[in-house]
Specification:
This protein is mainly α. Helices cover 87% and strands 0% of the residues. The chain contains 4 helices and no strands. Helix 1 packs antiparallel against helix 2, helix 1 runs antiparallel to helix 4 and helix 2 runs antiparallel to helix 3. The protein is elongated and about 35 Å long.
Length: 107
Amino acid sequence: MLFLSFNLLLFSLLACLAENHLHQAIRYSEAAIMADDGKTISKHSEIAKIHALLVQNQKNISSADRIHMAVGIVSLDQAIEKGKYEADDSARKAARTAMFHFKEVRQ
């Protein structure tokens, strides 16, 4: 019984950690969308990507959620690159796409 309780606690903890990183990925993607310049878009997108990668590495997410995470991460890569070249509108669009995919994981 103790072993079962420990496993349930561990599973719950892992789910909370994944949710927290997902929340942070969404939060920083939103910050990238709202940023005033390409460098800031790129910076927020880099932080969002770190959190997104941590979510993607969790074992307890579905294959559909993994696809959303992968597409979101690719979009963040685009936001980072476009932001570095001061292509602000394109960078924001890529960050918006990432945010959309990350929000799909939450549902």
